[in-house]
Amino acid sequence: MKRIFLVRHGESISNIDNSVHLDTADHAVPLSDKGKLQAVHAGRFLQNYIRDIDADMQCRLWTSPYMRTRQTSDGIEAGATDIIFDRKEHINLCEQHFGLFDGFEDDELAKRFPAEFKHYKKCEEDQGRFWAQMPLGESRFNVAVRVHQAFGTFHRDCDRYGVENIIVVCHGVTLRAFVMQWMHLTPEWWKGLLSLLCFWWIAKIPSELPLLALGKETMQWMRQSWQMRMMPNGKNRTSWRLQS
After folding, report:
1. Residue 215: what pLDDT?
2. Sequential DSSP letters for 87-108
3. Would 231 be classed as within a structural domain?
4. Same domain for 132 and 145
5. Beta 165-170 vs 3-8: how paired, if at all?
6. Which of 33, 75, 118, 236 could form a disulfide with 228 if both were Cys (CB 3.0 to 4.6 A apart)?
7. Between residues 21 and 225, which one has the greater pLDDT?
8. Which residues form the domain of 111?
């Protein structure tokens, strides 16, 4: 595998109003108009960026089967017509399942589900946020395990069919799980991300879609940055924003 380009979906209508989840299944939440435009911009950026690296590079596009990631993939394909040779879906790239808490703001949970929320907060405090499982849903650990199961497909495509470059369109938690598992990072690394939704640019992209390229050079840079983040004095804690 030569390069993996990770893209989080564009702005969805639930990013504007989280209450959408109260009457719409998470997998059926669409992009906003702004999110659709972001996806096209990301596709154009990807095409220009990849052509600067290798004029002949072709990519397979993998996407989560959720509506917002499918629509993001539509936009990327529209903006990157020359670099994508096909598109496939992988169910293991879907969003974290929030279970009973899906669609509710944090400040509502204690009132609506007092017993379940109390139990979850206890698990979060005792075990850490990475390990704590949402009632009737998933923990971040669960997401990391299932994302890792998708790697066999990517490796097989590379070994058998020569698919060396892929674009993966997924979700914030899924994207972080992908990086953690691919680079053999630790749960402490996840905790060190603080409040960042996911990874941002490898360059100044003319859209607002977070994008990260995993290649030999970038992975080495990230390992070095991770070691710096572990310094006791807490410096470099915001050094994860990738810039050109």
Report:
1. 57
2. EEE-GGGSPPP-GGGTT--HHH
3. no
4. no
5. parallel
6. 236
7. 21
8. 99-137
For the full predicted model, state whether its pTM sits above 0.85: no
Q: What is the DSSP letter of 137?
A: S
Q: pLDDT band for position 213 (50/70/90)? A: low
Whether residue 207 sits in one domain with residue 173: yes
At 10, list the tokens.
């564009």
Structure tokens at 6: 């990770």
**3-state DSSP assignment of residue 204:** coil
The rounded distance, in Å, linking the Cα atoms of 167 and 171 is 13
* Predicted pLDDT at 188: 85
pLDDT in tens, 179-192: 889 888 888 888 76
Q: What are phi and psi of 98, to 5 degrees?
A: -90, 0
Q: Shortest CA distance to 153 belongs to which of 138, 140, 141, 163?
A: 163
Q: Which two tokens stand for residue 63?
A: 């996407």
- Find the CATH number of the domain harbouring 171: 3.40.50.1240
